[in-house]
């Protein structure tokens, strides 16, 4: 498996898309979004390895200063 990251900007919303092999890269992607001025809503889209990674991604997204909404559309691998 390879990392596949992308993003989409729509007004004040940045959506992270794709799949990553390691939780550390997910964290780094979230930190990169955090540095973009004016981000207010975050959408998490993609596939994670397990439920704990899903919870961790949402928790980290909610901790980004200035974020007022997190839309969690992450799917857990092998669970549909």
Attribute tags:
80 residues; alpha/beta; 2-enoyl-CoA Hydratase, Chain A, domain 1; four-stranded mixed beta sheet; 4 strands
Task: Describe the protein in words.
The protein has 80 residues and is an alpha/beta fold. The two termini are 18 Å apart. The chain has helices at 23-34, 51-62; strands at residues 4-10, 13-19, 41-48, 69-76. A hairpin with a 2-residue loop joins strand 1 (4-10) and strand 2. Helices cover 30% and strands 38% of the residues. The mean pLDDT is 79. It has a single domain (4-76), classed as 2-enoyl-CoA Hydratase, Chain A, domain 1 (Alpha-Beta Complex). It has 2 helices and 4 strands, in the order ββαβαβ. Helix 1 (23-34) packs parallel to helix 2 (51-62). Strands 1-2-3-4 form a 4-stranded mixed beta sheet, with helices on one face.
């Amino acid at each position: 498996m390879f990392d596949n990251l992308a993003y989409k900007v729509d007004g004040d919303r940045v959506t992270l898309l794709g799949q990553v092999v390691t939780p550390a890269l997910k964290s780094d992607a979230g930190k990169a979004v955090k540095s973009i001025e004016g981000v207010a809503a975050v959408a998490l889209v993609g596939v994670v390895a397990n439920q704990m990674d899903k919870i961790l991604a949402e928790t980290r997204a909610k901790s980004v200063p200035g974020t007022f909404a997190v839309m969690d559309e992450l799917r857990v691998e092998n669970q549909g």
